[in-house]
């Protein structure tokens, strides 16, 4: 008993378990996969992979290497999975303009969704990784908004703030605002952990948890969002409130004071 | 006299109702003579004298709205499940304090508006006190006999900071809870007593079940009570000392020129109250403040980035943020210098402000009363010191918001922190030197104006071809105003022998004082005022210069 638990902590133990698991799933898949349908899918799939490969060679290979093996300008993409590609290219982060700088910013997407799918298929073919989530996964049906809020405050607020407005990380890196981010991309961000964000695989945040979080983010940032009280002042908290109080609050009052003081001075003269 | 008049008016028949009520009250309270003596109290007209009024009125507004909030707020940390009308929190566990704040914000009529007025006026109250204090500082209004009132004002500012802090913590939301945690950390960093104070304050381990109820009594009773007393004392002293005024013809150390309290000033002040109330209410109706529903209820295992206190505590936040996280270990006890040093600095920065009037009067050795204000330029060293202090304060505020400057101006938070670390020390020095130079430059310009008159911008060509600008002599009033300030001589160390010729021991403090005095008033620290002889010599005979 003691021996076994000691072995369990061996650094290679995880690897052994992983290999075993992979072998099992691979074997099971081969045994159970419906043969004919798989064939048809496979041709469509390999077509997409081919197209993706071409797109990759033009737009991405300069940084990620001709086979996605990585270079000094970009990391290896073997095993990052389709979800990572869909997120990075779908939010316009990739293709990056430069590999310098603190962090690759999101911008307008360069590729169409069809092209992104092809790129994703190609990268997925290089090594297994998380798949692009389906609408059933990231849709908010059956989600618990309040639970999502709680999960968000526990897992995400330390970087993105409770309201999802984003915050600073070290050396010019930052967690961006989550306003207007598509549910699919939120799901993928959690799955793949882009750049300085940790990843939250299903073992840490279950599929249901992710749904809840997406539903919460949707609830605090949509047309129906309830956020009373007037101008949000950027939702940045006491700093913007303080600036506002000084400039518009005290500023206005001093202006009024100047006005009142000037009024009497005139009356005195007349 | 008033009773005589009463008798007469009664004989003549019916006086207007108002007058009869006044008479009735006067017969019993004797208000008339009191009022008569005080109604003619004079208030000078200058907008900067109304800063104190802004503070007073926002304080009144805070009290009024605070009373409304107490009707609905439950200062309890009992855990309840939320079932109010804000959907994204439904079913969440939270303290009753947070629950009732949510209730006030969403379900009490006018609740959110009152909460926002309360909070906005708190920010404006403290900002007002800050500027008011600076006005008093830079004009030297704190000099004898007003040192006590300076202390009253200072205490109001500091107590206001803590009243604001305790109020801000009451809703028990994630943001304010983080602030309370921060405070607990600061308390814990105190050597020896820290843990005891923390256990005492929170009734056990943080956060415990008591702090909201305790902060509540502090917030609505203890501190506002003391502050109300101080405000009354402050106003009585203002009344008793009478107002200061800027130098000018007809204004002496013994009079006050301006409007009588009644009716002019009272009407103006009454109107001003409503203007202040209206402005603050408009701001509160337009702009959101402290949206606790966005933050969620406090839980010690959660934290949000971008967590800052209200602005008046921002300099404490800044001190912590730019302080390196030093720690030393002494005999098995950890001393968290990274937190303790900021805590000490917090006290030092404030104490410097409180003690300045006493330091200055020790340096000048001036025991006379001062009712005429200084123009800041005419007290260059004081002005420079004040600007240096404000600079330091502002730099710590920049440090307190380092993450927001980083994200909004695309800077590295580390560079900002280093900038603040360096400029916390260098900034005040630069500010001191610059301010002093500017003050001396302005003094020089005043002197020029007095001696040579005002530049008119008119260029004249003399017969021999030279161009000159025509200078117009100043009016008598202007000349008076520009030369009314007095200038100190630097204090000298007393003679080395006493009157009996015996060698005297010169105290170290005396030497220090002479040295500082030299830095204040010595050569090149102020521009000597033009003397009458100088003026006569220049103005007699030749017309231009
Ligand atoms: C100098 C005086 C005061 C200052 C600076 C001050 C400041 C504050 C602040 C900043 C808050 C947080 C408000 C928020 O939730 O956004 C607060 C809450 C509160 N204050 Fe005051 N306050 C003062 C005096 C008073 C007085 C005199 C009372 C009652 C008589 C009072 C009653 C309350 C109550 C009940 C709350 C909690 C309610 C809530 O947050 O929704 N305050 N105060």
Automatic annotation (TrEMBL), chain A:
EC identifiers of the protein: 7.1.1.8
Substrates-to-products reaction catalysed: a quinol + 2 Fe(III)-[cytochrome c](out) = a quinone + 2 Fe(II)-[cytochrome c](out) + 2 H(+)(out)
Highest taxon, organism lineage: Bacteria
Signal peptide per UniProt: 1-30
Predominant localisation class: membrane
A GO CC annotation given for this chain: plasma membrane
Protein name, as recorded: Cytochrome bc1 complex cytochrome c subunit
Lineage of the species this protein comes from: Bacteria, Bacillati, Actinomycetota, Actinomycetes, Kitasatosporales
TrEMBL record, chain B:
Gene Ontology biological process terms from the UniProt entry: respiratory electron transport chain
Keyword Electron transport: yes
Catalysis: reaction(s): a quinol + 2 Fe(III)-[cytochrome c](out) = a quinone + 2 Fe(II)-[cytochrome c](out) + 2 H(+)(out)
Keyword terms: Cell membrane, Electron transport, Heme, Iron, Membrane, Metal-binding, Respiratory chain, Translocase, Transmembrane, Transmembrane helix, Transport
A Pfam family recorded for this sequence: Cytochrom_B_N_2
Residue ranges the record marks as coiled coil: none
Annotated Cytochrome b/b6 N-terminal region profile domain residues: 21-247
Transmembrane regions listed in the UniProt entry: 49-73, 117-138, 150-170, 216-240, 261-289, 330-358, 379-398, 418-435
Cofactor requirement: heme
One GO CC term on file: plasma membrane
Domain of life: Bacteria
One function term, GO molecular function aspect: oxidoreductase activity
Subcellular location: Cell membrane
EC number from the UniProt entry: 7.1.1.8
Membrane topology note: Multi-pass membrane protein
Keyword set includes Signal: no
Protein name (database record): Cytochrome bc1 complex cytochrome b subunit
Protein species of origin: Streptomyces griseoruber
Phylogenetic placement of the source organism: Bacteria, Bacillati, Actinomycetota, Actinomycetes, Kitasatosporales
């Amino acid at each position: 008993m003691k021996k076994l638990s000691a072995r369990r902590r061996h650094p290679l133990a995880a690897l052994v378990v992983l290999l075993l698991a992979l072998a099992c799933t691979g074997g099971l898949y081969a045994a159970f996969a419906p043969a004919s349908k798989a064939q048809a899918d496979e041709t469509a799939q390999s077509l997409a992979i081919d197209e993706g490969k071409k797109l990759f060679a033009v737009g991405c290979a300069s940084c990620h290497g001709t086979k996605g093996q990585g270079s000094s300008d970009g990391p290896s993409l073997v095993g990052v999975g389709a979800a990572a590609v869909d997120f990075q290219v779908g939010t316009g982060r990739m293709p990056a303009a430069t590999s310098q700088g603190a962090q690759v910013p999101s911008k307008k997407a360069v590729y169409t969704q069809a092209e992104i799918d092809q790129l994703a298929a190609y990268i997925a073919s290089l090594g297994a990784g998380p798949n692009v989530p389906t609408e059933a996964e990231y849709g908010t049906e059956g989600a618990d908004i309040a639970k999502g809020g709680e999960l968000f405050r526990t897992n995400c607020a330390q970087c993105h703030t409770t309201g999802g407005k984003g915050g600073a990380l070290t050396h010019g890196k930052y967690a961006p605002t989550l306003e207007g981010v598509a549910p699919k991309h939120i799901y993928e961000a959690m799955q793949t952990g882009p750049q300085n964000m940790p990843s939250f695989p299903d073992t840490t945040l279950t599929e249901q948890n992710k749904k809840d979080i997406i539903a919460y983010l949707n609830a605090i940032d949509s047309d129906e969002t309830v956020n009373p009280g007037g101008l949000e002042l950027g939702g940045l908290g006491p700093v913007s409130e303080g600036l506002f109080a000084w400039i518009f609050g005290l500023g206005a009052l001093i202006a009024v004071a100047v006005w009142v003081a000037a009024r009497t001075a005139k009356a005195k003269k007349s | 006299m008033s009773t005589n008049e009463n008798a007469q008016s009664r004989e003549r028949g019916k006086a207007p109702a108002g007058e009869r009520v006044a008479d009735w009250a006067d017969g019993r309270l004797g208000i008339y003579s009191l009022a008569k003596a005080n109604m003619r109290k004079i208030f000078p007209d200058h907008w900067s004298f109304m800063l104190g009024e802004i503070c007073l009125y926002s304080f009144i507004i805070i009290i009024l709205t605070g009373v409304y909030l107490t009707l609905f707020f439950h200062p309890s940390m009992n855990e309840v499940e939320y079932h109010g009308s804000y959907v994204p929190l439904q079913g969440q566990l939270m303290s009753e304090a947070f629950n009732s704040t949510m209730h006030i914000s969403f379900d009490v009529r006018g609740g959110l508006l009152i909460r926002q007025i309360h909070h906005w006026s708190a920010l404006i109250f403290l900002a007002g006190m800050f500027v008011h204090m600076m006005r008093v500082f830079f004009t030297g209004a704190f000099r004898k006999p007003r040192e006590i009132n300076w202390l009253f004002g200072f205490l109001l500012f500091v107590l206001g900071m803590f009243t604001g802090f305790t109020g801000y913590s009451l809703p028990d939301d994630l943001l304010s809870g983080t602030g309370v945690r921060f405070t607990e950390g600061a308390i814990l960093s105190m050597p020896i007593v820290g843990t005891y104070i923390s256990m005492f304050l929170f009734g056990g381990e943080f956060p415990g079940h008591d702090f909201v109820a305790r902060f509540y009594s502090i917030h609505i009773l203890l501190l506002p009570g003391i502050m109300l007393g101080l405000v009354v004392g402050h106003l009585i002293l203002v009344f008793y000392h009478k107002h200061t005024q800027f130098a000018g013809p007809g204004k002496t150390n013994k009079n006050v020129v301006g409007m009588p309290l009644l009716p002019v000033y009272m009407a103006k002040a009454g109107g001003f109250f409503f203007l202040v109330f209206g402005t603050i209410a408009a701001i509160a109706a337009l702009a959101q403040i402290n949206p606790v529903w966005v933050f969620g209820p406090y839980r010690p295992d959660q934290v949000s980035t971008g967590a800052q206190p209200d602005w008046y505590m921002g300099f404490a936040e800044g001190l912590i943020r730019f302080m390196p996280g030093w720690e030393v270990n002494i005999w098995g006890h950890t001393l968290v210098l990274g937190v303790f040093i900021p805590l000490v600095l917090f006290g030092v920065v404030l104490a410097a402000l409180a003690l300045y009037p006493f330091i200055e009067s020790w340096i000048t050795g001036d025991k006379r009363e001062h009712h005429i204000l200084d123009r800041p330029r005419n007290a260059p060293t004081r002005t420079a010191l004040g600007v240096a202090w404000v600079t330091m304060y502002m730099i710590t505020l920049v440090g307190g918001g380092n993450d927001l400057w980083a994200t909004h101006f695309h800077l590295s938070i580390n560079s900002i922190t280093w900038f603040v670390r360096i400029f916390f020390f260098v900034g005040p020095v630069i500010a001191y030197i610059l301010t002093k130079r500017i003050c001396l430059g302005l003094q020089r310009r005043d002197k020029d104006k007095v001696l040579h008159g005002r530049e008119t911008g008119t260029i004249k060509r003399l017969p021999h071809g030279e161009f000159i600008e025509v200078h117009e002599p100043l009016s008598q009033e202007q000349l008076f105003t520009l030369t009314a300030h007095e200038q100190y001589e630097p204090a000298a160390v007393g003679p080395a022998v006493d009157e009996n010729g015996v060698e005297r021991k010169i105290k170290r403090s005396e030497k220090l004082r002479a040295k500082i005095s030299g830095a204040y008033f010595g050569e090149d620290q102020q521009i000597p005022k033009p003397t009458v002889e100088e003026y006569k010599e220049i103005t007699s005979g030749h017309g231009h210069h």
